[in-house]
Design brief:
170 residues; mainly alpha; elongated
Length: 170
């Protein structure tokens, strides 16, 4: 959800002719991109958390307290409530950067899909038990991913060409 929203955030507004007034507004580029990142990220995070809570309720109802203890352990909580949003932030920042640099929403979606592949690889390694990371590892990984995402946002601000978007995109 967040990546789709992010990759369409700038391109979609340009196609709908609603981006020009936003770019002409007296806001800084970092504020514009941060707003787009937050708007794309929040629905996905909330959907993920709600899905997790429903999963926990159903798992404990069907399988009892033993599974409830597992799916509410520190690793699960850190993964769902800290690492998940950090990974979402990374994909959304990348999606907004891609969206600001390309002119076709399909291209942005495809590039965004490539960005997600390493994230899915890490998830598969964890799910298969190939690499097991505990709550502390998830926290450290989340901090690293968040730091890289914030650097990515700064890079996106540098790459964002407000005037080029206003004059050359048609």
């Amino acid at each position: 959800i967040p990546l789709s929203i992010a990759t369409f955030s700038i391109i979609g507004e340009k196609q709908d002719s609603s981006l020009e007034p936003v770019l002409a507004a007296p806001i800084r580029t970092v504020e514009l991109l941060a707003g787009k990142v937050i708007a794309a990220l929040v629905p996905g995070i909330l959907a993920g958390w709600l899905t997790y809570l429903v999963f926990v309720a159903l798992a404990s109802l069907v399988y009892g307290p033993a599974l409830f203890g597992v799916v509410t352990g520190p690793s699960w909580l850190m993964g769902v409530f800290v690492l998940g949003p950090a990974m979402g932030l990374a994909s959304v920042v990348a999606g907004v950067i891609v969206s600001s640099r390309v002119t076709d929403p399909r291209v942005a979606q495809q590039i965004g899909g490539i960005i997600i592949v390493p994230i899915i690889g890490v998830i598969l390694l964890q799910a298969t038990g190939t690499v097991l990371v505990g709550a502390t590892g998830y926290f450290i990984l989340a901090m690293i991913v968040t730091f890289v995402s914030l650097i990515g946002l700064r890079i996106g601000v540098t790459l964002f060409e407000r005037e080029a978007i206003l004059t050359r995109w048609r």
